[in-house]
Design brief:
The complex is a heterodimer of chains A (130) and B (399).
Chain A: H1 9-16, E1 29-34, E2 41-51, E3 54-65, H2 68-81, H3 86-89, H4 94-100, H5 109-129
Antiparallel strand pairs in A: 1-2, 2-3
Chain B: E1 4-5, H1 16-22, H2 24-27, H3 38-58, E2 65-68, H4 71-89, E3 97-101, H5 106-117, E4 122-126, H6 136-142, E5 147-151, H7 165-181, E6 188-192, H8 204-207, E7 211-215, E8 226-230, H9 245-248, H10 256-291, E9 297-299, E10 310-315, H11 320-329, E11 332-333, H12 349-353, H13 358-361, E12 364-368, H14 375-395
Parallel strand pairs in B: 1-11, 3-4, 3-5, 5-6, 6-7
Antiparallel strand pairs in B: 2-8, 7-8, 9-10, 10-12
Helix pairs in contact in B: 1-10, 3-10, 4-5, 10-14, 11-14
The chains are: A alpha+beta (130), B alpha/beta (399).
Chain lengths: 130, 399
């Protein structure tokens, strides 16, 4: 049944068949972010690798308790960062996540903020641990 | 794919008999009821018949029934119309006072907030207990000399709790006896009966109410029609100005086919009430029994004072909108009070007032049955829901 007026096809795809669901045992960086606006919670795990002296995100996984957009943005952001140099991953904005999903309804933009925030904090967590 | 609609408290389809009753009034019998010619009088007759059906159903007089576009409009007219009238008629009341509950539909709450904002009324929003029921003692204590209106919904649309309308009606009647003796303006009593009409006794004298609002689209009539019962003598100032339709209380050329639909809907409610209530209660019991087998799920509301068609659950570890989307993919329609499903990103004010934490409201799930719900459908939902919840719980962070 087509409910593409609420969410774009891409959002629904990532919600129905999310990528990178799960935990990383012994992650290099991790963050749990709660969205005070709506109560959604996202836990992001990253594993860092090194290639040609550059740090990059080798693995990214997530666990999310939240609405369609929350799951979709978690799935999308972990997809976007995998294989990316750390310094590029750090620059990913919530806008980029929303765009990659073909847009989000205005009332759901805060979900992309949650995802971008979780990534930032997970990377910070990695830097702190170093 | 099977399509199972369990969101009847949100709206219902127009039933075939009602559609058939409406049709002539779109095509052949299309007159403006205010005209004296044949076409106009034909329309007028249809309106009168519908009005009489509704009046009989409520135990009221035809001239006490006003047609509106929906329950929200009826509620606006009742509250704003009464307050405006008191402001001009009763000089002793500087600022009319309204008592309502914190679990009312937004139509009541926002109307009250608006009256407060423009300085036309002061409003007391009464708390409710964990079942969502308002305490009669709180109403009694809240009444002041300037109180003009008590507005309590008959059945809560989000959780299905039945409020003690009859007892409140009796209380207000007693209070008014002494108020009249003390030369105080009487307290009027409004109830939003939208979710009650189909299943509960709505006799206005038996309940002791002065104003009653309901809409058609919860009863298999189309969206865009409602009614307001106004007891004779209750002072209301018209809020929609223009021609003198609806006893000068609601201007606008009458929507004859929709009025006919509402009359027919009420006729069918009356015919089917007993049978329908029994069937739906049985089906709901089956649903509840099946759903409560899932761990981490609890039922919301009073165990007995519940309307037959609504069952709301709190599900741990899964969010409301996500559940609705996955259920929709399986062909099932339901509803939720989670913040993500609300237009304002706030959890249900009803669940909050009942003491549920935001994290609990986050996982709320409402099923509301209807006349077309079957046992097969309930069995399917009971089979599918555990898979949906399992999938979402697997994705959620553990604490």
């Amino acid at each position: 049944m087509d409910i593409s007026d609420l969410y774009s096809k891409k959002v629904l795809q990532h919600f129905r068949h999310p990528k990178n669901v799960g935990e990383i045992k012994n992650p290099d960086g991790m963050a749990t972010v709660g969205n005070p606006v709506c109560g959604d919670i996202l836990r992001l795990f990253i594993k860092i690798g090194k290639k040609d002296n550059q740090e990059f995100i080798k693995e990214a996984k997530f666990l999310t308790l939240g609405c369609g957009a929350a799951v979709a943005t978690s799935s999308m952001i972990t997809t976007m960062v995998k294989g990316k140099p750390l310094k590029d991953a750090e620059k990913i904005t919530n806008k980029a996540v929303a765009e990659a999903l073909g847009g989000l309804p205005p009332i759901k933009i805060h979900c992309s903020v949650l995802a971008a925030d979780a990534l930032k904090k997970a990377i910070e967590n990695y830097h702190q641990k170093k | 794919m099977k399509k199972i609609y369990l969101d009847n408290a949100a709206t219902t389809p127009v039933s075939p008999e009602i559609l058939a009753a409406m049709e002539p009034y779109f095509t052949n019998k299309f007159g403006n009821a205010s005209e004296p010619h044949f076409w106009g009088q034909e329309a007028r007759k249809a309106i009168d018949e519908a009005r009489e059906k509704i009046a009989n159903f409520l135990g009221a007089k035809p001239k006490e029934i006003i047609f509106t576009s929906c329950a929200t409009e009826s509620i606006n007219l009742a509250h704003k119309g009464l307050v405006e009238s008191i402001k001009y008629k009763v000089s002793s009341i500087k600022c009319p006072h309204i008592i309502t509950s914190s679990v009312e539909h937004k139509a009541v709450l926002e109307t009250c907030k608006h009256l407060e904002k423009i300085g036309w009324a002061k409003v007391t929003y009464l708390p409710v207990d964990k079942y969502g029921i308002v305490d009669i003692k709180d109403i009694e204590q809240a009444i002041r000399p300037e109180t003009v209106l008590v507005s309590i919904m008959y059945v809560n649309n989000e959780v299905g709790t039945i409020e003690p309308i009859e007892e409140i009606g009796r209380l207000i009647k007693e209070i008014n006896v002494s108020r009249v003796a003390r030369h105080l303006s009487p307290v009027y009593f409004h109830t939003d009966a939208t979710q009650a009409i189909q299943y509960l006794d709505c006799n206005v004298d038996g309940l002791g109410i002065d104003l009653l609002s309901f809409s058609g689209h919860k009863l298999y009539a189309p969206k865009g029609i409602g009614a307001l019962y106004i007891r004779s003598g209750v002072p209301i100032v018209r809020q929609q100005d223009g021609g003198g339709q609806e006893y000068n209380l609601r201007a606008g050329t009458e929507n004859v086919p929709y009025i006919v639909a509402l009359g027919k809907a009420i006729e069918l409610v009356e015919q089917n009430k007993v049978h329908s209530t029994k069937c739906i209660e049985k089906l709901k019991s089956k649903l509840i029994e099946g759903v409560l087998k899932i761990s981490g799920v609890k039922l919301v509301g009073h165990p007995q004072k519940q309307v037959p068609h609504i069952a709301t659950f709190i599900v741990e570890g899964a969010e409301g909108e996500a559940m609705l989307l996955l259920l929709s993919d399986k062909g099932i329609a339901a509803s939720s009070g989670s913040a993500c499903t609300s237009g304002l990103l706030k959890p249900s004010h009803v669940l909050t007032a009942m003491g549920y934490k935001p994290q609990e409201a986050h996982g709320s799930l409402r099923f509301s049955l209807g006349k077309d719900t079957t046992l097969k459908e309930i069995d399917y939902v009971v089979k599918v829901l555990p898979e949906v919840i399992k999938k979402l719980r697997k994705m959620a962070p553990k604490f």
